[in-house]
Amino acid sequence: MDGFVTRFAPSPSGRLHLGHAFSALTGWKLARARGGQYRLRIEDIDRTRCRPEHEAGEIEDLRWLGIDWDGPVLRQSERLPVYAAALDRLRAMGLEYPCFCTRSDIAAAARAPHGSEGIIYPGTCRHLSAGERAERMASEAFAWRLDVAAALAVTGPLTWRDHEAGLIAADPLKGGDIVVGRKELGVSYHIAVVIDDAAQGVTDVVRGRDLFEATHVQRLLQALLGLPEPVYRHHVLILGPDGRRLAKRDGAASLASLRAGGATPADIRELLPPLPDPVRERGRNYNSGAIP
Ligand code: GLU
Protein backbone atom coordinates (compact mmCIF):
# COMPACT_ATOMS: atom_id res chain seq x y z
CA MET A 1 0.00 0.00 0.00
CA ASP A 2 1.78 3.18 -1.09
CA GLY A 3 -0.99 5.75 -1.48
CA PHE A 4 -1.11 5.34 -5.26
CA VAL A 5 -4.38 6.64 -6.76
CA THR A 6 -5.11 6.72 -10.46
CA ARG A 7 -8.19 7.08 -12.62
CA PHE A 8 -9.77 6.26 -15.95
CA ALA A 9 -11.67 9.19 -17.45
CA PRO A 10 -13.55 8.33 -20.64
CA SER A 11 -15.96 10.66 -22.43
CA PRO A 12 -19.26 8.88 -23.08
CA SER A 13 -19.32 9.64 -26.80
CA GLY A 14 -19.24 6.04 -28.09
CA ARG A 15 -18.14 2.55 -27.10
CA LEU A 16 -14.64 1.84 -25.80
CA HIS A 17 -12.01 0.58 -28.23
CA LEU A 18 -8.66 -1.17 -27.87
CA GLY A 19 -6.92 2.11 -27.02
CA HIS A 20 -9.25 2.68 -24.09
CA ALA A 21 -8.80 -0.94 -23.01
CA PHE A 22 -5.02 -0.47 -22.90
CA SER A 23 -5.30 2.78 -20.96
CA ALA A 24 -7.86 1.43 -18.50
CA LEU A 25 -5.95 -1.82 -17.91
CA THR A 26 -2.59 -0.05 -17.49
CA GLY A 27 -3.87 2.14 -14.65
CA TRP A 28 -5.93 -0.65 -13.11
CA LYS A 29 -3.00 -3.08 -13.06
CA LEU A 30 -0.74 -0.52 -11.40
CA ALA A 31 -3.38 0.38 -8.82
CA ARG A 32 -4.19 -3.20 -7.94
CA ALA A 33 -0.56 -4.35 -7.81
CA ARG A 34 0.38 -1.47 -5.54
CA GLY A 35 -2.60 -1.79 -3.21
CA GLY A 36 -3.72 1.62 -4.40
CA GLN A 37 -7.03 3.03 -5.59
CA TYR A 38 -8.56 3.08 -9.05
CA ARG A 39 -11.22 5.70 -9.77
CA LEU A 40 -13.68 6.13 -12.60
CA ARG A 41 -14.69 9.51 -13.97
CA ILE A 42 -17.17 10.17 -16.76
CA GLU A 43 -16.09 13.28 -18.69
CA ASP A 44 -19.49 14.33 -19.96
CA ILE A 45 -19.45 18.13 -19.92
CA ASP A 46 -20.13 18.31 -23.65
CA ARG A 47 -23.79 17.30 -23.72
CA THR A 48 -23.91 17.50 -27.51
CA ARG A 49 -21.46 14.58 -27.84
CA CYS A 50 -22.18 12.58 -24.70
CA ARG A 51 -25.11 10.20 -24.16
CA PRO A 52 -26.21 8.20 -21.08
CA GLU A 53 -26.38 5.05 -23.23
CA HIS A 54 -22.72 5.49 -24.14
CA GLU A 55 -21.85 5.78 -20.45
CA ALA A 56 -23.75 2.55 -19.74
CA GLY A 57 -22.00 0.85 -22.68
CA GLU A 58 -18.56 1.97 -21.48
CA ILE A 59 -19.23 0.72 -17.97
CA GLU A 60 -20.35 -2.61 -19.41
CA ASP A 61 -17.13 -2.77 -21.48
CA LEU A 62 -14.99 -2.10 -18.39
CA ARG A 63 -16.80 -4.72 -16.31
CA TRP A 64 -16.44 -7.24 -19.13
CA LEU A 65 -12.68 -6.60 -19.18
CA GLY A 66 -12.62 -7.44 -15.47
CA ILE A 67 -11.93 -3.90 -14.30
CA ASP A 68 -13.37 -2.70 -10.99
CA TRP A 69 -13.05 0.71 -9.39
CA ASP A 70 -13.07 2.28 -5.96
CA GLY A 71 -15.57 4.80 -4.69
CA PRO A 72 -18.41 6.42 -6.58
CA VAL A 73 -18.30 7.19 -10.30
CA LEU A 74 -17.70 10.92 -10.70
CA ARG A 75 -19.76 12.56 -13.46
CA GLN A 76 -18.48 15.92 -14.63
CA SER A 77 -21.93 17.08 -15.74
CA GLU A 78 -22.94 17.08 -12.05
CA ARG A 79 -20.06 19.35 -11.04
CA LEU A 80 -20.50 22.44 -13.22
CA PRO A 81 -20.80 24.84 -10.22
CA VAL A 82 -17.43 23.62 -8.89
CA TYR A 83 -15.75 24.43 -12.20
CA ALA A 84 -17.57 27.78 -12.43
CA ALA A 85 -16.23 28.76 -9.00
CA ALA A 86 -12.66 28.03 -10.15
CA LEU A 87 -13.21 30.13 -13.27
CA ASP A 88 -14.48 32.98 -11.10
CA ARG A 89 -11.34 32.74 -9.05
CA LEU A 90 -9.05 33.00 -12.05
CA ARG A 91 -11.12 35.91 -13.35
CA ALA A 92 -10.81 37.71 -10.03
CA MET A 93 -7.04 37.28 -10.35
CA GLY A 94 -7.23 39.12 -13.70
CA LEU A 95 -6.05 36.07 -15.63
CA GLU A 96 -8.99 35.58 -18.00
CA TYR A 97 -10.35 37.59 -20.88
CA PRO A 98 -13.47 37.21 -23.01
CA CYS A 99 -12.86 35.99 -26.55
CA PHE A 100 -15.42 36.67 -29.27
CA CYS A 101 -13.59 34.93 -32.11
CA THR A 102 -15.27 32.22 -34.13
CA ARG A 103 -13.34 29.19 -35.33
CA SER A 104 -12.97 30.73 -38.77
CA ASP A 105 -11.77 34.07 -37.29
CA ILE A 106 -9.06 32.14 -35.47
CA ALA A 107 -8.08 30.06 -38.50
CA ALA A 108 -7.82 33.21 -40.60
CA ALA A 109 -5.76 35.11 -38.03
CA ALA A 110 -3.47 32.26 -36.96
CA ARG A 111 -0.10 32.21 -38.63
CA ALA A 112 1.42 29.95 -36.02
CA PRO A 113 1.77 26.26 -36.85
CA HIS A 114 -0.97 23.96 -35.67
CA GLY A 115 -0.26 22.51 -32.24
CA SER A 116 -1.35 19.14 -30.99
CA GLU A 117 -4.66 20.68 -30.00
CA GLY A 118 -5.26 22.32 -33.35
CA ILE A 119 -4.65 25.92 -34.24
CA ILE A 120 -2.91 28.01 -31.62
CA TYR A 121 -4.95 31.05 -30.70
CA PRO A 122 -3.13 34.19 -31.88
CA GLY A 123 -4.33 36.32 -28.96
CA THR A 124 -6.66 38.62 -30.92
CA CYS A 125 -9.08 39.42 -28.08
CA ARG A 126 -6.34 39.80 -25.47
CA HIS A 127 -5.78 43.31 -26.81
CA LEU A 128 -9.36 44.63 -26.63
CA SER A 129 -10.00 47.62 -24.40
CA ALA A 130 -12.14 47.27 -21.27
CA GLY A 131 -14.85 49.36 -22.94
CA GLU A 132 -14.94 47.22 -26.08
CA ARG A 133 -15.06 44.07 -23.97
CA ALA A 134 -18.02 45.29 -21.95
CA GLU A 135 -19.90 46.41 -25.04
CA ARG A 136 -19.39 43.17 -26.94
CA MET A 137 -20.12 40.98 -23.90
CA ALA A 138 -23.57 42.55 -23.76
CA SER A 139 -24.45 41.40 -27.26
CA GLU A 140 -22.13 38.63 -28.46
CA ALA A 141 -21.40 35.06 -27.43
CA PHE A 142 -17.93 34.66 -25.95
CA ALA A 143 -15.54 32.17 -24.41
CA TRP A 144 -13.18 32.84 -21.50
CA ARG A 145 -9.50 32.43 -22.29
CA LEU A 146 -6.60 32.15 -19.89
CA ASP A 147 -3.94 34.83 -20.30
CA VAL A 148 -1.12 32.32 -20.09
CA ALA A 149 1.74 34.84 -19.95
CA ALA A 150 0.04 36.72 -17.09
CA ALA A 151 -0.65 33.43 -15.32
CA LEU A 152 2.99 32.38 -15.58
CA ALA A 153 4.03 35.71 -14.12
CA VAL A 154 1.97 34.74 -11.04
CA THR A 155 3.26 31.18 -10.68
CA GLY A 156 6.85 31.54 -11.92
CA PRO A 157 8.49 28.62 -13.75
CA LEU A 158 6.86 25.23 -13.26
CA THR A 159 7.83 21.62 -13.84
CA TRP A 160 6.01 18.31 -13.94
CA ARG A 161 7.19 14.78 -13.50
CA ASP A 162 6.66 12.26 -16.21
CA HIS A 163 7.19 8.56 -15.70
CA GLU A 164 9.00 8.16 -19.04
CA ALA A 165 10.55 11.54 -19.68
CA GLY A 166 11.56 12.54 -16.13
CA LEU A 167 11.34 16.13 -14.96
CA ILE A 168 9.77 18.34 -17.64
CA ALA A 169 9.92 22.13 -17.73
CA ALA A 170 6.29 23.18 -18.20
CA ASP A 171 5.87 25.36 -21.29
CA PRO A 172 2.19 26.33 -21.37
CA LEU A 173 2.92 29.30 -23.65
CA LYS A 174 3.38 27.00 -26.61
CA GLY A 175 -0.30 26.04 -26.49
CA GLY A 176 -1.41 29.69 -26.55
CA ASP A 177 -4.19 31.24 -24.48
CA ILE A 178 -6.42 28.19 -24.07
CA VAL A 179 -10.17 28.36 -23.52
CA VAL A 180 -11.09 27.79 -19.89
CA GLY A 181 -14.80 28.57 -20.31
CA ARG A 182 -16.30 27.36 -23.56
CA LYS A 183 -18.90 29.56 -25.27
CA GLU A 184 -21.74 27.10 -25.12
CA LEU A 185 -20.71 25.12 -22.03
CA GLY A 186 -19.20 27.66 -19.64
CA VAL A 187 -16.37 25.28 -18.70
CA SER A 188 -13.61 23.45 -20.54
CA TYR A 189 -11.84 20.10 -20.43
CA HIS A 190 -8.62 21.52 -18.93
CA ILE A 191 -10.34 23.14 -15.94
CA ALA A 192 -12.57 20.15 -15.23
CA VAL A 193 -9.73 17.64 -15.44
CA VAL A 194 -7.38 19.37 -13.00
CA ILE A 195 -10.13 20.04 -10.48
CA ASP A 196 -11.36 16.47 -10.64
CA ASP A 197 -7.92 14.87 -10.47
CA ALA A 198 -7.51 16.76 -7.20
CA ALA A 199 -11.06 15.95 -6.00
CA GLN A 200 -10.49 12.25 -6.65
CA GLY A 201 -7.13 12.32 -4.85
CA VAL A 202 -5.26 11.22 -7.99
CA THR A 203 -1.52 10.84 -7.35
CA ASP A 204 -0.67 9.36 -10.77
CA VAL A 205 -2.37 10.35 -14.02
CA VAL A 206 -2.23 7.40 -16.42
CA ARG A 207 -3.34 8.38 -19.94
CA GLY A 208 -2.26 8.29 -23.58
CA ARG A 209 0.58 10.24 -25.17
CA ASP A 210 -1.97 12.25 -27.15
CA LEU A 211 -2.49 14.21 -23.90
CA PHE A 212 1.22 14.81 -23.17
CA GLU A 213 1.11 18.38 -24.49
CA ALA A 214 -2.06 19.15 -22.53
CA THR A 215 -0.08 18.59 -19.34
CA HIS A 216 1.85 21.86 -19.76
CA VAL A 217 -1.23 24.01 -19.25
CA GLN A 218 -2.86 21.63 -16.80
CA ARG A 219 0.20 22.00 -14.58
CA LEU A 220 -0.22 25.79 -14.79
CA LEU A 221 -3.90 25.55 -13.81
CA GLN A 222 -3.01 23.31 -10.85
CA ALA A 223 -0.49 25.86 -9.62
CA LEU A 224 -2.93 28.77 -10.03
CA LEU A 225 -5.73 26.94 -8.21
CA GLY A 226 -3.47 25.59 -5.44
CA LEU A 227 -4.11 21.96 -6.42
CA PRO A 228 -1.68 19.11 -5.74
CA GLU A 229 0.66 17.99 -8.52
CA PRO A 230 0.30 14.38 -9.68
CA VAL A 231 2.94 12.32 -11.49
CA TYR A 232 2.14 11.60 -15.15
CA ARG A 233 2.42 8.40 -17.14
CA HIS A 234 1.64 8.98 -20.80
CA HIS A 235 1.50 5.53 -22.33
CA VAL A 236 1.91 4.53 -25.99
CA LEU A 237 -1.10 4.86 -28.25
CA ILE A 238 -2.78 2.00 -30.05
CA LEU A 239 -2.79 2.66 -33.78
CA GLY A 240 -5.31 1.51 -36.35
CA PRO A 241 -4.47 -0.18 -39.66
CA ASP A 242 -4.01 3.28 -41.21
CA GLY A 243 -1.26 4.08 -38.69
CA ARG A 244 -3.39 6.70 -36.97
CA ARG A 245 -4.50 6.71 -33.35
CA LEU A 246 -7.68 4.71 -32.88
CA ALA A 247 -10.81 6.83 -32.56
CA LYS A 248 -14.36 6.01 -31.59
CA ARG A 249 -15.31 6.02 -35.28
CA ASP A 250 -13.05 2.93 -35.75
CA GLY A 251 -15.91 0.54 -35.03
CA ALA A 252 -13.88 -2.57 -35.88
CA ALA A 253 -11.64 -2.03 -32.89
CA SER A 254 -14.49 -1.42 -30.46
CA LEU A 255 -14.61 -3.87 -27.57
CA ALA A 256 -18.30 -4.44 -28.23
CA SER A 257 -17.71 -5.57 -31.81
CA LEU A 258 -14.69 -7.71 -30.89
CA ARG A 259 -16.77 -9.31 -28.17
CA ALA A 260 -19.67 -9.88 -30.57
CA GLY A 261 -17.16 -11.61 -32.86
CA GLY A 262 -16.29 -14.06 -30.09
CA ALA A 263 -13.24 -12.39 -28.46
CA THR A 264 -12.69 -12.97 -24.74
CA PRO A 265 -11.07 -10.46 -22.33
CA ALA A 266 -7.92 -12.61 -22.51
CA ASP A 267 -7.92 -12.24 -26.32
CA ILE A 268 -8.15 -8.46 -25.90
CA ARG A 269 -5.06 -8.44 -23.68
CA GLU A 270 -3.22 -10.47 -26.33
CA LEU A 271 -3.97 -7.76 -28.88
CA LEU A 272 -2.46 -5.04 -26.65
CA PRO A 273 1.15 -4.09 -25.88
CA PRO A 274 2.49 -5.50 -22.58
CA LEU A 275 1.02 -3.91 -19.49
CA PRO A 276 3.47 -2.35 -17.00
CA ASP A 277 5.25 -4.66 -14.59
CA PRO A 278 4.67 -3.08 -11.19
CA VAL A 279 7.23 -5.34 -9.49
CA ARG A 280 10.04 -4.14 -11.75
CA GLU A 281 8.96 -0.56 -11.27
CA ARG A 282 8.91 -0.67 -7.48
CA GLY A 283 11.24 1.87 -5.96
CA ARG A 284 11.60 3.86 -9.16
CA ASN A 285 12.25 7.49 -8.35
CA TYR A 286 10.07 9.69 -10.51
CA ASN A 287 11.77 12.80 -9.18
CA SER A 288 15.02 11.98 -10.92
CA GLY A 289 15.79 13.10 -14.44
CA ALA A 290 17.16 16.32 -15.80
CA ILE A 291 15.07 19.08 -17.28
CA PRO A 292 15.57 18.56 -21.02
N1 GLU B 1 -11.69 12.33 -21.31
C1 GLU B 1 -10.43 12.28 -22.00
C2 GLU B 1 -10.53 11.32 -23.17
O1 GLU B 1 -11.46 10.54 -23.23
C3 GLU B 1 -9.29 11.84 -21.10
C4 GLU B 1 -8.83 12.93 -20.23
C5 GLU B 1 -7.61 12.62 -19.39
O2 GLU B 1 -7.26 11.44 -19.20
O3 GLU B 1 -7.02 13.55 -18.88
O4 GLU B 1 -9.67 11.36 -24.02
TrEMBL record:
GO terms, biological process: glutamyl-tRNA aminoacylation
Keywords: Aminoacyl-tRNA synthetase, ATP-binding, Ligase, Metal-binding, Nucleotide-binding, Protein biosynthesis, Zinc
CC per GO annotation: cytosol
Its EC number(s): 6.1.1.-
Region ranges (Disordered): 269-292
Pfam families, sorted: tRNA-synt_1c
Gene Ontology MF terms: ATP binding; glutamate-tRNA ligase activity
Domain Glutamyl/glutaminyl-tRNA synthetase class Ib catalytic: 5-255
Superkingdom field: Bacteria
Record's keyword annotation contains Zinc: yes
Record has Plastid as a keyword: no
Family indicated by similarity: Belongs to the class-I aminoacyl-tRNA synthetase family.
Protein name: tRNA glutamyl-Q(34) synthetase GluQRS
Species, as recorded: Glacieibacterium frigidum
